[in-house]
Amino acid sequence: MPFTQSSLTKLEEFFKEQGYKVRYEKGSFRTGACMLQTTKVVVVNKFSNLEIKIQSLWNILLDIEIDSEAISEKLLPIYEEVLKSKIIA
Question: How far apart are CA 7 and CA 40, in angstroms?
């Protein structure tokens, strides 16, 4: 996935379709993002650069359970990339 604003927007849309809320906040993050326990809220360090934001959201995507029926055709390529990444890992 290229490190562009468009990619970040698509990842945010993907999380939204899965019922997650992505928030950008300041804080003492060890990584670029975290998921609040037992909630569907992902907090991204707003001071991270674009590449770190995308990588952080991508890593969380690899760890969550994805509802394939909730994915729009527009965001289907992201889901396919996630599946490929899970197979390789």
Answer: 21
